[in-house]
Design brief:
single chain, mainly beta, Maltoporin, Chain A, 22-stranded antiparallel barrel, 38 strands, transmembrane beta strand
Amino acid sequence: MFWCRFSPFPLSLSVDDSVNSTQDNTMNRRTLAIVMAAMLASPTLHAAETGSDYLGNEIVVTSSRVPQPKKELTSNVTIITKEEINESSANDLSELLAEKNLGQIQKYPGTLTSVGIRGFRTESHGNDLMGKVLVLLDGRRAGTGNLAKIMTANVERIEIIRGPAAVQYGSAAIGGVINVITAKGSGAPSASIEQKIGSNDFSMTEATIQGKSGRFDYSGSISKSDSGSYKTAKGETYQNTGYHDQKMASLNVGYEIADGQRIGMIVHSFDVDKAGSPGYFSLPDLNAYTVQNNHSVDFRYDGTTSSRTLSWMARYFTGKDEYRYVDPNWGESTNNVDQQGAQAQVSWQPGALRLTAGFDWLKYELDSTSAPTWASYENPAGFLLGKYGLFDERLILTAGVRYDDYHVDMKEGEGTSKSRDNFAHQAGVAWQATDFLKLRGSYAEGFRMPSARELAAHITSWGTTYIGNPDLKPESSETYEVGMDLTWKGLNGSLTWFSTDYKDMIQTKAIAPTTYTYINVGSSTVSGIEAELSKVFALEGSSWTLEPYAGYTYLLRYRDNQTGDDLLYTPQWNASTGLRVHDGCGFNGAFNLAYTGKTLVQNWETGFGEVVPKGGFTVVDLSVSKKFPFGGKGVKGPGITVRAEINNLFDREYQYVKGYPMPGRTFVFGLKADI
């Protein structure tokens, strides 16, 4: 009776990817509304009392740079839990966020993916300072905007700020911030090894270890994978889309030197020896490939007094991101970024007031075969964040300010040295109107500092001369949002309206027939609605639980104010919905549907960049697993887990980027041993 009532919800959703998708969009919206309404009631189910504590004691750190309950947040924050990550079929951060479908995904063959939030995207090539959505590892810059380089196997949770966070993290945090928080070891030592095989000659071996011995804790994961060229939904092989010897690793070790004081080291590593770079499907390059690496190490010290009135954090991190493109018929190019930085902050909370003051320092050095061949970025910054609680913490007021100084150097003969600075501000309010409803509102600023090329260049490339403009202002944004969060009898939800004014966009301007400079001229406006809803149900008289969920983003306005046209590569709406199932005895299942709306893109495949529509599409993924425990410790102890995944379940043809079709239906099978 139970399965008949619930399995039709996701399965009935439209999967038509027609370019003329107006009718299908209406159907998808209507069905999504039905799914959300269906979560509100069911005569045969009751809400689980063990559902996520949406407004209670769930702790987040990204918004304030210190741990705080989610009920104190004044902006829209999405949390992806460890359980959601483990149940997903995703192997890296790019695949996981494609399932969540928060905004535009730009995904190419060959481990290259950027993600968008509120009309702005990460920068997938090289320097993440050029992006407009910022990716963090444990609160510091990841050094890349390519999400395919970040593994999810050793992740505790992912916190996503939707909207600017310049006060907390500086340049590039305009559309949002994605903070990947590494797992920390706890409990008795344990380890696992897993082998996966699947379609298109996919193979992956992964090992993990975690635990705590006395004051020493550790958690780590390492994997190696290979894949051949994949077949599209039409059954045609997309040549040169495979990769060879991709290795990913993550390690978090720490030692508690005294009560409340921990020193730790976090290591992240990504290597792929050879990832195919085929170009357009209609004219594939059978020989080109990329070699990519991203490595970083982070040393950190956290401490607090016994009364918790004073807490502090200090860290130093260093890393390197390397990208090499090789075409045996043409040659090769490289783009390498060396990164190092430091953070220090102190928080004081004697009662209802909390003040956090800190200093950030960041330095990038870029080496490239294309001009500018060498550039250096240095960015010291200071910030102050405050929170005050009134009426027994039912009313929360927040504010913050940050100052960034930004200095660039370029190679002699290609440019000069220039400096700029920027102030950023934010403020917010949250009111716990009832025990289950929170109302919130906020104002926040974002910015992107001009690049070395834009500020200080004097270079000639392919017969065109580019001259930097030392008077450039940072690109900047102002965002207002209001929303509400609720939790009621296992129902968790949020609704947010936002509006962003983005100005001083940097664009090129001709000052001679073959000479260009850079000017602040463009602006755009993006506004929309974001909604999330989930509910945990328990089947009467059994250990089974089900959690249907849905997420939705609809842009009311996404316009280039200079031309009056809609922004390119920006879908009007994105949605994801699905169902997670648990039996309490080792069985887990996840069904996920992600819909991306129609977008306007440029046609470089068969044209010269003219704007054309790209139809919407739906991708459905399914994964199930069953653990067979041994040793008498239940599903949390040793055991063997069998897993099966089907990606693109309905074998639909789709592409995130015009001319680059994605794989058709694929199967993956796994066997995991926990010891």
